[in-house]
Amino acid sequence: MSFSDLFDSEFKQRNKGHFASIVRVALTDEKFSPEEKAFLDKLAVRLEISTAEYEEILENPLKYPINPPYLYEQRMERLYDLARIVHVDHHLGDKQEVMLRKIGVGLGFNAENVDYIVDKALKLVDKEVDLDTFIFEMQNMNK
Question: Is 104 in contact with 114 (CB distance < 8 Å)?
């Protein structure tokens, strides 16, 4: 296996883990809304998830680990995606919010601050900010 194959394989595994985390959050109310399904479809394309992988992940999202990213900005991107899938229902279920907080810790956010971070993320997504604004606001929320 070449070095580039190893990199591609690791990249694909991280994307699958991220996608599976989002599916877990979406499934906490045990069903997908049409908006959630549309979001998952688009995200699968963006993350280069094949049709077979997509079906497998939908069937058993717990099979894939969270795989926290190393870079803070990548953690913010993942939090943004997760907050958007929670918000897509336009009503927050307690289970979805609890799951988002657990996955936030899994992504590497401090357990002591995760409530504050998730609350801020959900407020920003509610305002329909883009990714760049989301990252800027999250990085500067204590200033």
Answer: yes
pLDDT the model gives residue 93: 60
pTM over 0.85: no
Q: Which two tokens stand for residue 103?
A: 């996955």
Q: Could you tell me the CA-to-CA distances from 48 to 39, 113, 115 in Å, in that order?
A: 14, 32, 31
Give the count of domains, the chain.
2
Domain co-membership, 126 together with 109? yes
First-to-last CA distance in the chain? 47
As given in the structure block, the two tokens for residue 96 are: 């979805």
Smallest Cα–Cα separation from 82: which of 98, 62, 103, 63?
Answer: 103
- Specify whether 50 is located in the same domain as 107: no
For 17-57, what is each residue's pLDDT tens digit? 888 888 887 777 677 778 778 878 888 888 889 999 999 99
